[in-house]
């Protein structure tokens, strides 16, 4: 991947905080859910409940698709990312604690949480590793995408 497209992807990741992840339910239907995320380079992380449907879906099939975007009143200003990826539960406690410490940094203007931040044993943390990244940028033309295999 060339440096310019990598920088574009990293900029989009750093300027957004939520993504929609789609996993596969046991009956084969996709399940799309909005989650907060943090990233370390092109590796993304998100949290969910230990027994959530997302966690169960990913335990059975670790493939997921995701989108990261924002609302805009100007159709030709649409930008965002979509990815095909694999998600693995974070097992290493140090990595889990690092992810949990990164999450509040994405929300510097947020009021204090009404509860304590969950610990690594109270949530499932997934590491998301992209395999295909589609960079959407309508400023380059209607529906323009750059496809990156990672």
UniProtKB/TrEMBL annotation:
Its EC number is 1.-.-.-, 1.4.3.5. Keywords: Oxidoreductase. Residues 7-118 form the Pyridoxamine 5'-phosphate oxidase N-terminal domain. Pfam families: PNPOx_N (PF01243). The keyword Hydrolase does not apply. InterPro entries: F420H2_bilvrd_red/Heme_oxyg, Pyridox_Oxase_N, Split_barrel_FMN-bd. One of its GO terms (molecular function) is pyridoxamine phosphate oxidase activity. This is Pyridoxamine 5'-phosphate oxidase family protein.
């Amino acid at each position: 991947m060339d440096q310019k497209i990598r920088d574009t992807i990293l900029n989009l990741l750093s300027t957004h905080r939520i993504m929609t992840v789609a996993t596969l339910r046991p009956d084969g239907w996709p399940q799309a859910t909005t989650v907060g995320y943090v990233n370390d380079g092109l590796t993304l992380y998100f949290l969910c409940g230990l027994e959530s449907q997302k966690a169960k879906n990913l335990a059975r099939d670790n493939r997921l698709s995701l989108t990261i975007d924002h609302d805009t009143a100007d159709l030709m200003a649409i930008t965002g990312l979509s990815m095909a990826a694999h998600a693995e539960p974070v097992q290493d406690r140090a990595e889990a604690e690092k992810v949990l410490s990164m999450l509040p940094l994405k929300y510097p203007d947020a009021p204090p949480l009404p509860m304590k931040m969950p610990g690594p044993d109270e949530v499932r943390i997934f590491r998301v590793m992209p395999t295909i990244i589609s960079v959407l940028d309508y400023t380059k033309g209607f529906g323009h995408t750059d496809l990156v295999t990672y």
